[in-house]
Amino acid sequence: MDGNVSQGEFASEALAQIPAALQGVVDAGDLSGFVTLLYRKGEVVQVNTLGHRDVAAKAPMTRDTLFRIASMTKPVTSIATLMLVEEGKLNLDDPITRWMPEFSDMKVLASPTGPLADVTDAARDITVEDLLTHRAGLAYGFTSIGPIAHAHEEALGSPLANPLGPDEWLKRLGQLPLSFQPGERFHYSHATDVLGFLVARIEGKTLGEVLKARVFDPLGMVDTGFWTPPEKRDRLARLYRINPTTDQLEDVSFPHTATPPAFEGGGGGLISTADDYLKFARMMMGRGEVDGVRLVRPETIDLMTANRLTDAQREIPFMGIPFWMGQGFGLGVSVITDPEKQAWMGAGSEGAFGWPGAFGTWWQADPAEDLVMIYLIQNSMDLSPEAASQLATGQRMGARAALPVFQKLTYAALGK
Q1: Closest Cα partner for 209 from 284, 266, 290?
Q2: In the chain, what is the straight-line distance between the N-terminal and C-terminal CA atoms, in Å?
Q3: SS3 371
């Protein structure tokens, strides 16, 4: 643990329980290591660096360790989209077919788990807002069940390490039927990947170039991008999972590529550090501004962090659990609407917002407490077809419990 602890308004003895609790998870062999960061009222209150970024090399976690942040990418892509909305380059209710003819005349499955040939016409085109709220009717293979799940894998390959370029990928996705009518319900999907390629087309650049110019450079996020150059690779944490046969951690890291990938996934492709993501999270909590740099207007953040799901849509389980009890989803982030009822994003005040990543990464900004929490691990989740129906497999209880422990101990240290 770094010696970076200040009293703040936290109870220091309670804060000190966090590294001890998380170290036990490392010692048990459930996870390779952690970097956690707490920021409150203008200062970094605690940073924990526990375990190893590379177990075989005995390389320890450090504050500047690079992590694949998976779906923590989605809020970043969403901010870039809303910057274009502010500039009048697109509107939330615009049909995406204006820029993406690949999604013209879409078909919709008669049943989301039924045969691919049993389809009806889409009642309307997908809109920009549909993509931002995962109500486009699109899917992921791992969040779907039945033929459409396997069709995604066959047509598109892995949701995160994809060999296709944007145009070919969009063409293939557009040829698959939608699982639901546009606007009908929240179904976690490739929507934010589509959104990223939409932003790239409008700007006439790659998504990586757009994000660098609009978000990373202005905020000073020097270690964030879709590719790790050779000189930084020693800092990149290896990706692990529990081998079901040996019950031991095994390295399942993506291979390095000599050049940046053709597929820059706005839904899950970014690599970042705790301090880089803190700058983004503080910008969000500052309603679009941090350290004198403004990316978007305050009203845009307010729009982004307000629930847009209907009561009926929130009653539908997500990943097999009643995820939306006490929380909702805005434009690229989830938001706590009732702290007493919500249980699935950990502790937090009304209005706290964030979004996790598939490799166990998580963050939350809590404006009511002026608090940002960042939690980074590299624990591989099964993203194969139908995997969400067995979400807990491949993880021991210690790995699953570590994040709630971090959340609850943090708020307990505030007397919550």
Answers
A1: 266
A2: 24
A3: strand
CA-CA distance, 169 to 160, in Å (whole number)?
A: 12
**130-164: per-residue pLDDT in tens?**
999 999 999 999 999 999 999 999 999 888 778 89
**Given this model, what pLDDT does residue 237 score?**
98
- Nearest alpha-carbon partner for 109 in 156, 154, 149, 159: 149
Task: For residue 69, give the amino acid letter.
Answer: I
Amino acid occupying residue 332: G
Is the CB of residue 309 less than 8 Å from the CB of residue 329? Answer: yes
- Reported as type and span, the H/E element at residue 249 is strand 249-251
* Contact yes or no for 62/90 (Cβ under 8 A): no
Q: Please report the beta strands in 169-216, taking only residues with DSSP state E, as ranges in sequence order.
A: none
Confidence check: pLDDT of 7 > 80: no
The residue to which tokens 């997908």 are assigned? 126
**Closest-CA residue to 376 (of 48, 112, 132, 58):** 48
- Write the pLDDT tens digit of every residue in 317-368: 887 788 899 999 999 999 999 999 987 666 899 999 999 999 999 999 999 9
DSSP secondary structure string for all residues of 255-321? PP-SS--S---TTT--EE-HHHHHHHHHHHHTTTEETTEE-S-HHHHHHHTS--S-HHHHTS-BTTB
Q: What is the mean pLDDT of residues 1-24?
A: 79
Q: Residue type at 260?
A: P
Task: Output phi, psi for 362, to 5 deg.
Answer: -155, 150
